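For reproducibility, we list the full input for the magnesium ion complex.
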Amino acid sequence: MNYQLNSEEVTAATFRMLEKRGVKLEGIAELVYFLQKDYVEGLTMEICLDNVQRVLTKREVQNAVLTGIQLDMLAEEGQLFNPLQDMVRHDEGLYGVDEVLALSIVNVYGSIGFTNFGYIDKLKPGILEQLNDKHDGPIHTFLDDIVGAIAAAASSRIAHANAGTS
Ligand code: MG
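The corresponding predicted structure, in tokenized form, follows.
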């Protein structure tokens, strides 16, 4: 009965599924740059990308990414039961579980991430605008919050490193 999870498999699936759903790590890095450029001297896209990759090696983050993407895909195929199917498909205003799941990512690097998460969720720059496009096609009810949360967590990681605390 000993169940041994292969961590490398989870990591690989995380990167693979993000790519499959049209999310480039560079797109997330651009959000990080957008969030931190005014606060971190000498910030480069390379530093942002490196921090996005580090965030994505955390199991809590990987679990949220895989769960959210799976729910989006099931909703796309009409496989959820109603009324959940309709709520996820239409990203219904009072649903909110997509944001709650994303908070488990934001949480990884402490409370500074919450502000960043709320900020880009409101502005929806870059890749977030594309993911949030509600026209017919792929459903990204969970993925838009997940991508924003990864960017917020990577921003917090940079901010902590810059303050000499990690
Ligand atoms: Mg959402």
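The CA atoms of residues 79 and 85 lie 7 Å apart. The chain has a mean pLDDT of 93. Both points were considered when choosing residues for closer inspection.
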